[in-house]
Design goal:
Layout (H helix, E strand, L loop, with lengths): L1 H22 L7 E6 L6 H17 L2 E6 L4 H10 L6 E5 H9 L7 H4 L16 H5 L2 E2 L2 E2 L1 E7 L1 E6 H6 L8 H13 L3 E4 L5 H15 L2 H8 L8 H15 L14 H7 L3 E7 L2 H4 L10 E4 L14 E2 L1 E7 L6 H11 L2 H8 L17 H9 L3 E2 L9 H16 L5 H19 L1
Parallel strand pairs: 1-2, 1-3, 8-9, 11-13
Antiparallel strand pairs: 3-12, 4-5, 6-12, 7-9, 7-10
Helix pairs in contact: 9-10, 9-11, 9-17, 11-18, 17-18
Length: 426
């Protein structure tokens, strides 16, 4: 009996100590460590720092943040390997995928079924469903999108209105618009030909519109031949733009952001690019410049779904071996509230949070996602095939876009380079 009372007394003493320590602030404080892709002083870094401070005040959780810059994944890898694991990493999906593929990330499906921070609904229901699904790998969602982008043509609204032009919906209409602009002394298309991934975007989009994203990805993986007629047709359509002289003169050697500057200065009418354009050009565009956006045009006789849209995100990933998963999930919910998303949108960074404000110049992005029968990764996911994408696809793609090879030569060289690439891997 004495032993029983002694044990009970020890429990009561321990409970009192916890209460006293908590009241004196001596209990272990809840904490969180974040490694971010942002550099100090960037607008989005300032936004994130404000969100983190407000989160600390709202929850009492102490946040340590490392502003590691764009090489954050490379910088944090040694810490992960030595067991010094942070809780959250912030980077693009393409960069974070390496961590997911190594089994180092924490799946969030269960957390997404719980209540959102600021709304009486499940957390998962606060995001665009198709965009959220892009973060699913091997059946599980591992990343929560912070900023979500698509691609399309950006155009000079005033220029179009002056000539009575409407944003084209089909490739034939697009060619007609280009010809009308040219006949009126306006260069239709801007392009910085020294950026390889910009160069292959035209072929990639036409291949997705004609062959479909699955077929494009299969060819890049060496599972089917690039000599399929659909890919040759896509290459021929790229060459037609070159032969008609729709690109700005000297685009082959144009260095970013020269051609974008030509566009905002009214020297060209359109620019195929990602939805970072409003942010990139915000400080250099002339006062009163109005930009619009339209989806990559549909190819009329294609049997592929022409509503397919690209999307990619800068996301937060929670690490499997992080010690503060509960706190990490709390922060992710807090940072994807409508208020946080609206403040992010004010910096021209488009959020995937439903109900948040659109970014000026990107109003069409939400419509593109809403119309889409399918949303795919950038260039059907070829960007995530890092080595092949850089040493084969971009390298050979440059030659087509810069007019150095014919469409037939491009297909032949791409097929040969792909076969040689995978032969070296065997």
């Amino acid at each position: 009996m004495k032993t029983k009372y002694r044990a009970l007394g020890m429990v009561l003493v321990a409970l009192v100590l916890v209460i006293v320590m908590t009241s004196l602030g001596l209990a272990k404080q809840r904490e969180l460590e974040i490694w971010s892709m942002m550099n100090e002083g960037e607008p989005l870094q300032i936004w994130a720092a404000e969100i983190i401070k407000e989160f600390e005040e709202a929850t009492g959780i102490k946040v340590k943040v490392v502003w590691a810059g764009r090489q954050v994944v490379t910088k944090v890898k040694p810490r992960i390997l030595t067991g010094q694991v942070p809780d959250i990493i912030d980077q693009s999906n393409a960069e974070l995928l390496a961590i997911v593929n190594e089994g180092l990330s924490y799946p969030l499906d269960e957390a997404l079924e719980t209540k959102a921070w600021d709304r009486d609904m499940k957390w998962k229901d606060t995001f665009s469903p198709l965009v959220l699904e892009l973060n699913r790998f091997d059946g599980e969602i591992h990343m929560i999108p912070r900023a979500t982008y698509t691609s399309g043509f950006f155009y000079n609204i005033d220029m179009f209105e002056q000539l009575g032009l409407e944003p084209p919906e089909t490739w034939s209409e697009f060619l007609d618009v280009c010809e009308t602009l040219k006949q009126n002394g306006i260069t239709p298309l801007s392009a910085d030909g020294t950026i390889s991934f910009y160069n292959v975007w035209y072929f990639s989009w036409l291949a997705m519109r004609i062959a479909g994203p699955d077929k494009l990805k299969a060819a890049a993986e060496g599972k089917i031949s690039w000599k399929d007629p659909d890919f040759l047709r896509a290459a021929q359509m790229v060459r037609e733009l070159i032969d008609r002289e729709y690109f700005i003169k000297g685009y082959e050697g144009s260095v970013w952001p020269a051609s974008q500057m030509e566009w905002v200065q009214g020297n060209t009418a359109m620019l195929l690019c990602g939805a970072w354009i409003p942010s990139e050009m915000s400080k250099t565009k002339p006062e009163g410049f109005r930009m619009g956006m339209f989806a990559f045009p549909a190819v009329e006789d294609s049997e592929v779904d022409q509503t397919i849209a690209e999307a990619w995100s800068n996301s937060w990933l929670i690490l499997k071996d992080g010690k503060n998963k509960e706190e990490a999930i709390e922060f992710r919910k807090f940072a994807t509230s409508v208020d946080a998303a609206n403040r992010q949108a004010a910096l021209l960074s488009p959020s995937a949070v439903l109900g948040s404000n659109p970014v000026e110049g990107l109003e069409e992005q939400a419509n593109m996602f809403e119309r889409a029968g399918e949303i795919v990764h950038k260039m059907a996911g070829l960007e995530t095939m890092h080595e092949y994408y850089q040493v084969v696809y971009q390298k050979v793609g440059d030659k087509l876009f810069l007019g150095r090879v014919s469409p037939e030569e491009f297909i032949e060289e791409l097929e040969q380079a792909t076969q040689e690439f995978y032969a070296r891997k065997r």
